[in-house]
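Hi everyone,

Forwarding the result from last night's run.
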Amino acid sequence: MGKQSAKRRLADNEAVATATMLRGSPQKLNLVAASIRGMKVEKALASLSFNRRRSAIEVKKVLQSAIANAENNHNLDVDSLVVAEATVGKALVMKRFRARARGRVGKIVKPFSRLRIVVREVEETA
C-alpha cells in the first residue's frame, strides 16, 4: 500500500523545467525571461546565445532542459515547441555586511532566484 501518484499539473502537450538558487536578483533574471516568452524554441535559443546578460546562460540551460524533458519524457515534437511560460520567483537572500567608517556598517544583500520554464507543443496552421 503505497502513496497514490499525484495528478499531472500540466497538459499532455506541455513539459516543464525549473532551476532554483540561481545567483542574481529576480528583477534582472526576469528581463531575460521576458524576452523569450511566447517565442518558438529554436528562435529563443538563438536569442539567448547572443544575449549579453550573465543570466542568459542560466536561462538557456533551463530552456534546453525543458526541451529535453519534452522530447524524452513526454514524446513531444521539438520542432513545434513554443515557450508558453517563463516565470521568475524569489529564493533566499544572503545578508552580509562590510565595515565602514566610525563603527558603522554597510549592508550587502546577495539575492537568489528561481526560474520555471514551460514549453508547449502547438500544431502548425496551414
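The chain is about 30% helix and 35% strand.

Cheers,
N.
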